[in-house]
Amino acid sequence: MTNPPSELERLLDVPVHFEAVLPSPAMRVGDLLALTEGGIVKTGHASGETVAVLAGGALIGYAELSEANGRRVGRMVRFSAGGR
Description:
mainly beta; Surface presentation of antigens (SPOA); 4-stranded antiparallel beta sheet; 2 helices; 36% strand; elongated
């Protein structure tokens, strides 16, 4: 006989909105109007800097920005007390 799944096991496949918080850049209206699809907006954060990471709107920790295979990525470096 199989044991019923635990409360945590039932939640493992539930999708959660995940985001890294970057500072909002200030732009001139002319620069904003000149943006096109695929345009790049600089965030002011460089590789090696740490940013907050949220899941479901709650802070879960911090990630260090870096690059891998030509893409900007975040490597988790610290989890918040409630995040793990």
